[in-house]
Design brief:
Arc Repressor Mutant, subunit A; Nucleotidyltransferase, domain 5; 3 domains; 16 strands; binds zinc ion
């Protein structure tokens, strides 16, 4: 089997499928081919198993064109035969295709306040290996992360790596490729992205905002890409939102939206920021100060007390859920989403708490207007490594190219 090694000797990322010199297409044809072959790759990824006939029906290419492009994908080892499907009529059973999961690997890193989580994915998006470790974000941190990975991830095959995808709880400056306003403890002005790229010089670095990565995972894996407008509220120590509008995700820094002009001073210098009022630390402190829970108690204790109807805990929860609902109501005014998803850890407070938030959301002109216009609210449906799944999928959907060259550089998305 002829399989292109996609990385050149100089470390520059090559095409997954090389274009032979004598058939070098003119610019426009090259673009059409890339679009078509990528669409087929995406369809196979999306469906898990799919036949050539189904592909041809879905992307409106002729069966001959689909067969030719599928042949190129199989020759390059990116797609493989997954056996026979069931035939719809009495005709021949269709040959099913699937992504060859072992052809490539993708690393994701989720940077948290004082730790990071590593997840290694195969090309189909299955998790191969994962671990979390403490880290101090100062010069040399990226080298330490790389050493930990090489030590703790025996199934990593660096020759198969396509990209390093990282999620950061911070606002990313997409053009400068730098980080603004982060809950990470970054010491001595360490340039997080430049350092990471320097220790993985031969693959692209794809850096995304944490809330956006959560939103993208929800969009693709929980809704199967079949939704246009959704907001994902990430509530942990930091608070943020990933906004899906017309199928495109971007970050909203709602954590630093003030919901109380007289409120406590936030790290950003403003008063009454959402993050300062309902971020995990603030939230647990509020419960503790009101005498609801002990100093080491967490979300679990609160959830159990809420389920039992503990009056004290219910009272404090009403106040806090009111603040979250105020923030959500403000964001709804801006984006009018169909769906609201809440996650990032706060889902551990359980359904009673979510119902409290839902009841307190107020929409403009709502009084007297039928209530079915309210967006549906739910907790995140992806239980584990949602941000890693979002980062992995974003890279495959939006950055990876098949016959065109994927540039070996730093990509930022918000
Ligand atoms: Zn703030």
């Amino acid at each position: 089997m002829e399989q292109t090694n996609w990385r050149g000797q100089n470390g520059k990322l090559m095409r997954l499928i090389s274009v032979k010199n004598h058939e070098k297409p003119i610019r426009h044809q090259g673009f059409v081919k890339e679009t078509n072959i990528k669409q087929i790759f995406d369809l196979i990824l999306e469906h898990g198993r799919i036949s050539r006939v189904e592909i041809s029906k879905k992307n409106k290419l002729s069966r001959a064109a689909v067969s030719m492009l599928v042949d190129e994908l199989t020759k390059a080892g990116l797609v493989t035969i997954a056996g026979e499907g069931s035939s719809v009529s009495s005709g021949r059973k269709p040959i099913m295709l699937e992504i060859n999961k072992d052809r490539a690997q993708i690393i994701t890193l989720s940077l948290k306040k004082q730790s990071f989580t590593y997840v290694l994915f195969d090309l189909k998006g299955n998790e191969i290996e994962t671990f979390s470790k403490k880290i101090v974000y100062k010069t040399g941190y990226a080298k330490k992360i790389r050493e930990s990975i090489l030590e703790k991830s025996p199934r990593l095959d660096v020759n198969k790596l396509l990209a390093l995808c990282v999620t950061i709880p911070a606002k990313l400056n997409v053009s400068e490729k730098t980080i603004n306003l982060s809950v990470l403890d970054i010491q001595g002005g360490c340039d997080l992205l430049a350092e990471l790229k320097a220790v993985w010089p031969d693959i692209p670095l794809v850096a995304g905002n944490l809330s956006s990565a959560y939103a993208y995972a929800e969009y693709k894996y929980a809704y199967g890409g079949k939704i246009n407008n959704m907001i994902f509220f990430y509530i942990d120590d930091g608070v943020g939102a990933g906004v899906l509008m017309n199928g495109r995700v971007f970050t909203s820094e709602i954590g630093h939206m003030s919901i109380d002009a007289e409120g406590p001073v936030c790290d950003c210098g403003k008063r009454g920021c959402v993050e300062r009022m309902v971020g995990k630390t603030a939230l647990l402190r509020e419960f503790e100060q009101a005498g609801g829970i002990g100093p080491n108690a967490g979300y679990d204790t609160i959830r159990k007390a809420l389920e039992k109807g503990d009056k004290q805990i219910v009272r404090i929860s009403e106040q806090i859920s009111g603040k979250i609902a105020l923030c959500i109501s403000n964001v709804i005014c801006m984006f009018t989403p169909e769906e609201l998803v809440v996650g990032g850890g706060i889902e551990l407070l359980g359904k009673v708490f979510l119902d409290m938030i839902a009841r307190r959301i107020e929409l403009p002109g709502e009084k007297g207007v039928c209530s079915d216009k309210r967006p549906h609210i739910s907790y995140s449906r992806i239980r584990e490594h949602a941000e890693a799944k979002g980062a992995f999928r974003y890279f495959l959907d939006n950055i990876l190219t098949i016959t065109a060259e994927t540039e070996n550089k730093i990509y930022c998305w918000n």
